[in-house]
Amino acid sequence: MNLVVGSTGRIGGEICHLLTGKGQPVRGMVRATSDPAKIDRLKAMGVQIVTGNLCDRASLDKACQGATTVITMVTCVFSYRPGENDIQHCDLEGTINLIEAARTAGAKYFVYVSFSGNIDLDSPLRNAKRTVEQHLKDSGLSYTILRPSYYMESWLTAPLGFDPANAKAEIYGSGEKPISWISLKDVAKFAVESLDHPAARNATLELGGPEALTPHQVVKIFEEAGGRPFEVTHVPEAALEAQQQAATDGLMQTFPALMRGYAQGDLIDMREMLKKFPMQLTTVQEYARQVLGQAQAVI
User: Has this prediction a pTM greater than 0.85?
Assistant: First the structure.
C-alpha cells in the first residue's frame, strides 16, 4: 500500500493519479477540513481515503498501518494558520511525526519532497526542510529526498507577481540569473518513478526542468506566446532582505528568502539525471501556451 500524505494538493493528487493509473494500491490522507470535491475526485480514481493530521500522532499511526511506502510533500504554505498549521507545527514537527509513525508501522520506504539545495538562504521553511531531511536519513527507513527548483505553477502565477493574463511581471532581483523552472507534474513523475528505481534509493535528487532560463527570458517567451509586451517591474534584493529582517511571522520571513533565492538563480543540470530517469520534462514554452490558452478561454 502506498500512503500519499497531501493527496488533495496539486502534487499529491497527481501522484495518486499516476499510481492508480499503474494499478498500484493508494491510500490518500486528507484532513477533516479538506475540500469534499477533491476527496470525491480521489475516490473516483480508486484511492482509499483516511483522515489524519500531522499534529495528531494517533491519526498518523492509523494512516500508516499496512503502508509499505509513504510519500509526502505537505507544507503549510498554501493553508497557513499561525500557531496551528504553520511551519513549526506542519513542516517541521508534523513531518517528523509522520516519519516516526511510518517507522513504527513498519513501512519500508519514505519519499519526501523538499526543495532545491541551492535555495539555501536562512529562513524558517529552509531550516525546517533541512532538519526533516536529516531526520529521515537518520530514521533507518529507506528514503528518497526530492529537491525541486522553482515550480512554474507557483512562481509564474499572479499571486507571486507573474501575471500572464494582464501581461505584467514583478521580477525579483536583476532578472538575469537562470532558474531551472520545473513543473509540479514532473515532480510527481519523479516521485512515482523513484519507487522502483535503484538510483533513487537512499538518495537526494536535485530536480529542475529541461532548461535554465532567466526571468527576463521567461517574460520574452510569454510575450511571444501571447503576442503582446509585458509591463515589467523589479524588486531589488536589498528590499527583499529588509522585508525578511522586518518580518516577525515565520511565513513572512520565508517568502522574501525564497524570492532572494530566485534573484540569485537556481541552475540545475539535468543531463545525468535524465539518463537515469528518461522522461520528457515540461518546458516553459509549453506551460506558457497552456496558461495563455486557459486565459483566452476564460475571456
Answer: yes
Give the residue among 68, 121, 108, 165 at the shortest CA–CA distance from 257. 121
Q: Nearest CA to 156 among 137, 131, 183?
A: 183
N-to-C CA span, the chain: 44
**Residue 222 is which amino acid?**
F
From first to last of the 299 residues of the chain, give the pLDDT tens digit: 999 999 999 999 999 999 999 999 999 999 998 999 999 999 999 999 999 999 999 999 999 999 999 999 999 887 778 777 889 999 999 999 999 999 999 999 999 999 999 988 999 999 999 999 999 999 999 999 999 999 999 999 999 999 999 999 999 999 999 999 999 999 999 999 999 999 999 999 999 999 999 999 999 999 999 999 999 999 999 999 999 999 999 889 999 999 999 999 999 999 999 999 999 999 999 999 999 987 555 44
Supply φ then ψ for residue 164, to 5 degrees: -60, -35
Q: CA angle at residue 109 from 12 to 210, to 5 degrees?
A: 50
Q: How far apart are CA 240 and CA 11, in angstroms?
A: 28
Closest Cα partner for 196 from 42, 22, 29?
22
- In angstroms, rounded to a whole number, what is the distance separating the alpha carbons of residues 50 and 25? 13
Total residue length of the chain: 299
Phi and psi at residue 261, to the nearest 5°: -65, -40
Q: CA 112, 156, 152, 154 torsion: positive or negative?
A: positive
Q: Which three cell numbers stand for residue 267?
A: 541552475
Q: How many CB atoms lie within 10 A of CB 134?
A: 11
Q: Half-sphere exposure (CA, 13 Å, Cβ side) for 65?
A: 11
Rounded Cα distance between 53 and 268, Å, is 34
Separation CA 247–CA 287 (nearest Å): 33
